Amino acid sequence: MSGNYFSYLYDNIIALSDFIGADPEDVHLVENATTACNTVLKSLDYTVESNIVHVNGYGAVNNAIKQISEKKGIEYRTISDDPPIDIENLLLMWEEYIDDNTTLCVIDHISSTNAFVYPIEKFIEIAH
Questions:
Q1: What is the pLDDT of residues 39-77, one digit of tens each?
Q2: Rounded to whole angstroms, how far apart are CA atoms 62 and 104?
Q3: What's the alpha-carbon Rg for the chain, to the nearest Å?
Q4: Count of CB atoms within 10 A of residue 105's CB?
Q5: According to the 3-state scheme, what is the secondary structure of the chain?
Q6: What pLDDT was estimated at residue 1?
Q7: Cα 35 from Cα 108, distance rounded (Å)
Q8: pLDDT tens track for 14-27
Q9: Of the candidates 96, 37, 43, 35, which has an alpha carbon nearest to the alpha carbon of residue 66?
Q10: What sign has the CA pseudo-torsion 116, 107, 124, 27?
Q11: Phi, psi angles (nearest 5°) of residue 94
Q12: Which of 39, 42, 44, 106 is nearest to 77 (CA)?
């Protein structure tokens, strides 16, 4: 496999970009969700009015959001997903927390805290 490593990576990027409808040059593979989140958080431009909205999720991602928010002096708005899950209430809070100054929205598709599978399409629709 060592001789074909980069070929395998390239093939995976092409397949993934086709699947999500993205330009392959915009798709990057990283080691884990924490690295991915940190990469995105550190690459965005924030203003003093910016905010980040997220549903409480994976601990390392929560910590990364908190750290970048404190470092940049921006607000982060956390929605608790403690059981029992009331999806309609979560969606209402998601919609309420997002405003014109929201720079980033973060949600686990499958919650790492309670294994709940979120209707991610509904969250995306609201965020757009």
A1: 999 999 999 999 999 998 888 999 999 999 999 999 999
A2: 13
A3: 16
A4: 19
A5: CHHHHHHHHHHHHHHHHHHHCCCHHHCCCCCCHHHHHHHHHHHCCCCCCCEEEEECCCHHHHHHHHHHHHHHCCEEEEECCCCCCCHHHHHHHHHHHCCCCEEEEECCCECCCCCCECCHHHHHHHHC
A6: 52
A7: 15
A8: 999 999 899 999 99
A9: 37
A10: negative
A11: -55, -50
A12: 106
What's the CA angle centered on 38, arms 23 and 94, to 5 degrees? 85
How is residue 108 written in tokens? Answer: 């686990």
Name the residue with tokens 């499958």.
Answer: 110
At 49, which amino acid appears? E
The structure's pTM equals 0.80
Position 114, amino acid: N
For 9, 10, 25, 30, 36, the CA distances from 4, given in Å and listed in that order, are: 9, 10, 20, 18, 24
Please name the residue that has the structure tokens 């959001």: 65
Task: From 41, 106, 96, 116, select the one nearest 74 (Cα to Cα).
Answer: 41
